[in-house]
Amino acid sequence: MIQQYLAVLLTAGSVLWTVTLVLAPLALVGAHPLGVPAAVLVYEGGGRICHQRSERSFRLAGVQLPVCARCTGLYVSGAAGALAAWVGSRRRMSAPRRARILLAVAALPTALTFSLEWLGLAYPSSMARALSALPLGAAAGWVFVRALRSESTGGRGERAKRVEPPRVAEPASAGRGD
Questions:
Q1: How many distinct structural domains can be found in the chain?
Q2: What is the pLDDT of residues 111-145, one digit of tens each?
Q3: Rounded to whole angstroms, how far apart are CA atoms 145 and 168?
Q4: pLDDT class for 157, splitting at 50, 70, 90?
Q5: Residue 171 included in any domain
Q6: Residue 161's pLDDT is what?
Q7: Element spanning 60, H or E
Q8: Is 169 inside a domain boundary?
Q9: 155-170 exposure pattern, b = at least 16 Cβ within 10 A, e = fewer
């Protein structure tokens, strides 16, 4: 049951954080007495997890977002993936190995753009950075929430597997003239 609550918290938290990232620059522009201090906290929190480089960040209403474009892509798609994990059945996730493969494949576009930048071979735009992060964020949000949801069912919702009783070998027919 605790896993179900964790899945709800993870989903709500990811959606709330994504909305907060968009509202923070608007709060700075609006200069509301309560909005500005709240926005400053969001920017400080964003600075703990992101480099916040201006040239790699989106702007809204002329104000830089609290995280870079790649992080924005991760958070937006992570929230979307978490929400998508609530659609459909509650049956147990397939093997953890498949989830790891999904995450590894989804990370390839992000790893590619990051590697190209790090090696100095290419400098993708902010939009390219954000778009390359979408598969990883969506896959991570979906996998984590789905795993928590399936753990909370305790296997319910999964079609019961029919267990056949073990076959007992028939005794050898000694002396029968078959």
A1: 1
A2: 999 999 999 999 999 999 999 999 999 999 999 99
A3: 44
A4: very low
A5: no
A6: 46
A7: strand 59-60
A8: no
A9: eeeeeeeeeeeeeeee
Distance CA 116, CA 108 (A): 12
| Domain-located, residue 173 | no
Residue 132 in domain: yes
- Name the DSSP letter for residue 74: H
Cα 121 → chain centroid? 29
C-alpha to C-alpha distances, 142 to 7, 63, 77, 96, 176, nearest whole angstrom: 10, 31, 10, 13, 64
Q: Which two tokens stand for residue 174?
A: 């000694």
Helix (H, G, I), strand (E, B) or coil at 71: helix
For 72, residues 6+ apart whose C-beta sits below 8 A from its C-beta are: 21, 57, 58, 65, 130, 133
Domain hosting residue 35, numbered range: 2-153
Q: Which two tokens stand for residue 30?
A: 């609006």
Closest Cα partner for 43 from 54, 76, 79? Answer: 54
